[in-house]
Amino acid sequence: MGEIIVVTSGKGGVGKTTTTANIGVGLASLGKRVVVIDTDLGLRNLDVVMGLENRIVYNLVDIIEGNCRLKQALIKDKRYDDLFLLPSAQTKDKTSVSPEQMRKLTSELRDDFDYIILDCPAGIEQGFQNAIAGADRALVVTTPEVSAIRDADRIIGLLEEHKMKKIELIINRIRTDMVKRGDMMSVEDVAEILSVPLIGAIPDDEQVVICTNQGEAITGQESVSGQAYSNICRRILGEEVPFLSLDQNKGLLSIFSNLFRKS
Amino acid sequence: MINVFEPTQKKSSVSIAKNRLKVLLISDRVNCTPDTFEKLREELYLTVSKYIEVAPEVFDVEITQSNIFIKLTGECN
Prior knowledge:
The structure holds 2 protein chains of 2 kinds.
Chain A: E1 3-8, H1 16-29, E2 34-38, H2 46-49, H3 60-64, H4 70-73, E3 75-76, E4 83-86, H5 99-109, E5 115-119, H6 126-133, E6 137-142, H7 146-161, E7 166-174, H8 176-181, H9 187-194, E8 198-203, H10 206-214, H11 224-236, H12 248-262
Parallel strand pairs in A: 1-5, 1-6, 2-4, 2-5, 6-7, 7-8
Antiparallel strand pairs in A: 3-4
Chain B: H1 13-29, H2 34-51, E1 59-63, E2 68-72
């Protein structure tokens, strides 16, 4: 029985789609069978981030309207045979799907996949309600900014109201230089304010932009952000992974010292 | 007169952000304005102080998503 995870944030532009894509790739690289679903009807972009935009034939709404079978709409990833994308519809609006239909669709996928990851649209309207309907677990993405944290807090409240079993926090785009100067809230500051368990912290890394330009994932790559995403995936599987130092130089050093410690 | 020491004494922007968020989140969570929350805090203090001897300085109300904590810090006689 697979686990259904929704990646959500409230505020737009904090990195939900990038996070969804990278966690999908990360879990697949750990040998799991994964499907990532873009639930943002009318504004699809998970396909572009994953570099699969040219392979789309059917989409989420086609399945719901019965134009195709579920398996026909799933697009296989370029690298991993056990990673699939279910794209969103570009021409439909958010009322074309109901929370009930989403719940049915995701529960059908449970038999075939270890992880079903939903990329939630920004906002708290129907798109959000659809995305969280069938989920067992929510990953709330935020950045260390007042507006993003406020929206994350609101989303956490709605998820609790919805009786979400597990809510965990991902803090994205941290700049250690600014944190050191006292001009950016630290990971600890944000986690304390939102008071939900932290599952990952990702540094602001230009490598993420470069990878997205190419439609590639950063997970598993040499950079600190790639390592941070890999760690999130291992924590999703239930492993206890210590948090990385996000300081670029120190980070590399600590990776090496960890290597030596292991041997 | 221009105070040349002013820039170095400027509050860090993080502490400003944290204070703004503290007020903002509480009023979002209980769905009221910061003023209303201040009133709520005062009335809670009056109620608690009827039964427990407590100074206003050590009385603090914290609202998380699903819990309300009323904190009394320091020593009670």
